[in-house]
Amino acid sequence: AFPLLPPYRIKVVEPIPFLTAGQRREAYAAAGYNPFNLRADQITVDLLSDSGTGATSSAQEAAAARGDESYAGARSWFPFRDEVRDLTGYPHVLPVHQGRAAERIVFSTILRPGQICLSNTHFDTTHANVELAGAEARDLPTPRALDLDSDDPFKGDVDLDALERTLAGPDGERVGLVLMTITNNGLGAQPVSMANLTAASELCRRYRVPFWLDAARFAENAWLVREREPGYADLSPREIATRAFQLADGCVISLKKDGLAPVGGVIGVRDPDIFATCEANLIATEGFSTYGGLAGHDLERLAVGLREVVDEDYLRSRAASTARLARLINEAGVDTVQPAGIHALYLNAGRLLPHLDPGRFPGHALASQLYLTGGIRCAELGSLYLGELNDDHQLVRPAPFELVRLAIPRRVYTEAHLEYVARTLGEIAKQPDQVPGYRITAAPRVLRHFKVRLEPA
Ligand code: F0G
């Protein structure tokens, strides 16, 4: 067995640009030192997101050619619906154009103003959609996640003691939803164990609170359960994923990740009344319930992608590839959140750049240096994104950690591209004190990191 061997070869390729250091300096200054403002044709290796950035297969494109674009009851709807039903076990399925549309529709149906949504960790759009529904998004990650260096296998878990304390305590009456994010994208791509999901599900049943999954990376979570949790080695990743869905009342899924397609999302739900309310909202805001804002060809790609993503050889090679990149990066002198997950690695920028205090945004400094040195795009998960600023854009409360996420698109980059990333980090790690900090020149009030402008300081 050679775990790194992917079960596919490359058939269609897309050129990537190589800029000179001078061109990158100019491009980055024009972008206001914000990677979200760069143009794709200024980037050599793009690790900004694993969302919608994967490669499709010849089987997906063949299916897409058969896409039926009828307004209602399109032929393409049925294989998609059946695949989601079979995978999740939920009788009711609604397509949406991406994950956050599912969040908006479900949260505005389930949550009332003043209620609380509890989670292992809300993703940023998820957090925003809970608040748009008038509710409070509260994260209860396991305290084991706070040790970035430990090799605890399930740092994505929810803190069960805190969950029970909240449900039983004075705020218990106000909890309208418990949402488990698998894998935990906000906290190091760490998986959630089946034991943790089972216990959280039982607590929710006991306290009569709806229990849902944000399952954007359901296949990758299933793979890590199989590898790390006793009792699951003999089940297929798909069987493990189905068992996870069975523990919940419903799911929202961004299919831009483990759907292996550029666009798409889905809502799955057991309760017919919740389904009916969501369906009415979907028709008013996304599209008719047999396409939900997607084209027929998108639904076809997704139905095939949902099968391909649970392929053992695919998951094994993807996990091995990320683990190898983590090893190369660590050997080059840069620490990552341990143990390596699958869809992304999180660099410990705070530790690499101790000469930069949080107010000079060490995470952003490292992400910026990766672009300036090597044309590699990624973004920080630190004080620029999560810290609290005053009206003069000065940091008043830093984030708990200064991290940089290297998100790894599915089936896109070869081992040579990833080795290049590790080598570029190695170059930076030779003289970390040469990496400059940054200062904010302009920042929007909400979702700051997307549109903020900065300068070296
Ligand atoms: N939930 C999780 C856990 C996510 O990671 C994302 C998106 C969403 C929901 C929203 O889905 O983008 O389809 O609307 N994550 C991307 C990322 C953007 O880069 O991590 P969406």
Describe the structure.
The protein folds into two domains: 176 residues, Alpha-Beta Complex (Aspartate Aminotransferase, domain 1); 251 residues, Type I PLP-dependent aspartate aminotransferase-like (Major domain) (Aspartate Aminotransferase, domain 2, 3-Layer(aba) Sandwich). 40% of the residues lie in helices and 14% in strands. The model has no long low-confidence stretch (mean pLDDT 97). With 457 residues, it is α/β, with parallel strands linked by helices. The protein is built from 17 helices and 16 strands. It has a seven-stranded mixed beta sheet with strand order 2-8-7-6-5-3-4, with helices on both faces. Helix 8 packs across helix 9 and helix 12 runs parallel beside helix 16. The structure holds ligand F0G.
Helix vs. strand class? alpha/beta
State which percent range the strand residues make up: 5-15%
Basic shape: globular
Low-pLDDT runs of 5+ residues are none
Please report the number of helical segments: 17
Topology:
Layout (H helix, E strand, L loop, with lengths): L20 H10 L14 E2 L11 H8 L11 H12 L3 E5 L2 H12 L5 E4 L4 H9 L3 E4 L20 H9 L6 E7 L12 H13 L4 E4 L3 H11 L8 H10 L3 E5 L10 E5 L2 H14 L10 H13 L3 H20 L12 E5 H4 L9 H13 L1 E2 L1 E3 L1 H4 L1 E2 L5 E3 L5 E5 L7 H16 L7 E5 L5 H4 L1 E4 L1
This protein binds ligand F0G.
Structure in a nutshell:
This is Tryptophanase. The protein has 457 residues and is α/β, with parallel strands linked by helices.
